[in-house]
Amino acid sequence: MQEALVEVEPRAALAQPAENTVPSEAEAGKARGKYPRFRIFTASLIKFGSFKKRERDQAGSTAPSIKKVREEQKESLEGPCGLGCMAFPRCQRFNNIRCFLIFFCILVTSQCIVFGLVDLSTDNFQKENHLKTTENLVLSLTYDISSCLVVVFIAYYGGKGNIPGWITVSSFLVGSGSLLFAFPYFSGGNYKMTVETEDICQEMKMVKACKKASLSFRSKYMTFFILGQSVQGIAAIPLYVLGITFIYNSVATHSAGIYLGLVEAAGILGYALGYAIGAPLIKASVNSTFEKSVEDSDDNERWQQSWWIHFVIIAVIAWSTLIPFSCFPHGIRGTARIKAGEHKQPHLLDRDQTKDQEFAASIKDLFATFGILIKNPMFVYLSLSRASESLVMIGASEFLPIYIENQFILTPSEATTLAGLVLIPGGALGQILGGIIISKLKMSCKGLMRFVMVTSAVTLVLLAFVIFVHCDSIPFAGITEDYGGTGQLGNLTAPCNSHCKCSSSFYSATCGRNDIGYFSPCFAGCTYSKTLKNHKTYYNCSCIKEGLTTSDNQGDFIDARHGTCDSKCYKLPLFIAFIFSTIVFSAFAGIPSILTILRIVSDKQRSLAMGVTFVILRIFGTIPGPVIFKIVGETSCILRDTERCGSIGSCWIYNKTKMAYLLAGVCFICKVVTIFFTAIAFGLYKYLPQENSDVLPTVVKNLKVKKKERTGSSL
């Protein structure tokens, strides 16, 4: 401990001159009074002159140890806020980490809004065009694959350069990628629409062809969305690797949790906002068939094309951060003072490998650094823990809207809005609260890992309650009910509707007066329909013989109505309470896992460590995650579109109970894996040398006192 205190003193002494590189307030005031147009040039000369002076000092005959310290000081050199060599005195009040964090959160939020819009748009496009499995995978995985290909290189070389400059490039790429997503919709869809009639029981039916976009729109959509995903994947690296490292290096150790929690919360809120914005736009793709006309088809096409305006707005918001980020210096004001009072050891790394070793900007040194990181089992286990943790949030975002829609009989728009505005923001709240808690308690690395395991255990308990909050399935003719004994389970056709020649490609949920659901009015044997107060009602249904009869205002007896039968299940508020609490406690583990990784590596390897963690998270988390939850959803499907367009289409009906068990089961397994890997890392951490196991905070003003005490004790 005493040796650590002595080693910090040279750095603290050398950190002080950096604060005088900007003119004082008094000098700036005089310049404003006498030479208002000259002050920018004067500040620029001072900045340039101080830089040349430091170069001359380092070029002289300096002791090797002092020269090495000065080189380290140069890497984290504070500078004034300005564009290039032009420093603006009035802008220096914004040269702090809080202003940087505001613009950073704006950029992160805008990119995550794009992610939410893209996910909804892609799902809508897949349903309308019945894409092949390979096409679906290409659209969904392009972002993760493109980011994995460049993350190690950007993390290594970007960490040695000007990180705010890299984030400026990321800001430009986020806006450009958003415009690429807008282009197919902006240029027009040209859907092939034909007139169709409602699928009721009648001898002659006008059936529409497959509703597909024209080949030009289809190819244009695929091309530009793949390009947009690739650009966004590259733009994400400076944000979630270099940006996180930059913020961590610019704040006090025990305050980093709050700052990083705000960043993660901004991303989750952005994704939820994207869902909320895009939810009304998916009303044209409801899995049902109504009576349509050419005018309705044109309205649907115009509704689909309204996606583009949202992408353009997000591009403008992202580009609004270009100038602010380009003005931030290599090191934000106050960074040197903060880091001078904190001495961090390269905890996990072998000192024999890193002692007196400077890694240059070459491919050989990149792989050498990569090898040092990947050979440390504790680092690998913590990264795998983050990957398993990401699967829970993927399940919430990918599968939750479908789950709510089918469990509680909501429309796709209502279910998506509920997930986007109520449930997914629980992750943002968990990230913020987790960061605040660990910052206020000033947890060590062992404390952070304990926190992850405890909150994950609480999440497991809440998941057990979620399993039991589901609704019973409604009797469905041909699936769970056999048409009163006249039909067979698994066959929608029965003697009462065999003369109707119904098609299972036209799903229009219908509820009979006997409280039994039917695939369509045709399968219920209904031959006549009316529209009463904007609601469809059906009459003369040959398959409906029981139940209470009601008459309309014209005296006709209603046999069925459009829509799903009331499940008489009122558990939605209870489900929201449990799943919201589950997501909050699950998100508690996000910030502690990031901070643990940042603390166990040396200062110069943090950016690359975050890059390697990013790759592991993608390979074992975000890439297989959507596929896993898609398979989970498909296994609970009991009726699927198998006729339309000559290929297997969307799932019409799910087994609610099986869906509940599968969703909770997969999340339960992911949390168990998180606890398992974190427990292994915790066990490895206990066997580290004691002097390398904790962050040692030091106050600069007490250095001389501590040094005297050490000298006295040695005498």
UniProtKB/TrEMBL annotation:
It is a multi-pass membrane protein. The chain crosses the membrane at residues 99-118, 138-158, 165-186, 221-247, 259-282, 307-328, 418-439, 451-470, 574-601, 608-629, 660-685. Residues 1-30 are annotated as: Disordered. Keywords: Cell membrane, Disulfide bond, Ion transport, Membrane, Transmembrane, Transmembrane helix, Transport. It is found in: Cell membrane. The keyword Repeat does not apply. Residues 490-545 form the Kazal-like domain. One of its GO terms (biological process) is monoatomic ion transport. GO terms for molecular function: sodium-independent organic anion transmembrane transporter activity. SUPFAM superfamilies: Kazal-type serine protease inhibitors (SSF100895), MFS general substrate transporter (SSF103473). It holds the Pfam family OATP. The keyword Ion transport applies. GO terms for cellular component: basolateral plasma membrane. InterPro entries: Kazal_dom, Kazal_dom_sf, MFS_trans_sf, OATP. Gene3D superfamilies: MFS general substrate transporter like domains. Belongs to the organo anion transporter (TC 2.A.60) family. NCBIfam families: oat. This is Solute carrier organic anion transporter family member.
